[in-house]
Amino acid sequence: MSFPPLTRRRAARLFTDDTGAATAEYAIATMAAVAFAGLLVVIMRSDEVRGILTDLVRRALTVA
């Protein structure tokens, strides 16, 4: 298979084309959000964190 020669005009068209870039950015951001959510789930399942949050809510709701 032979490719056509890479001229300045053709290179500019190839390397400045942003088709699909937004979709890729959304996909990466979505994967990062899912990973972060998974990390939060793991942290929130620990008894120590659950106790800290429960104590925080109790103190916030207690009338002093």
TrEMBL record:
Pfam families: DUF4244. InterPro entries: DUF4244. The chain crosses the membrane at residues 26-44. Keywords: Membrane, Transmembrane, Transmembrane helix. It comes from the Bacteria. This is DUF4244 domain-containing protein.
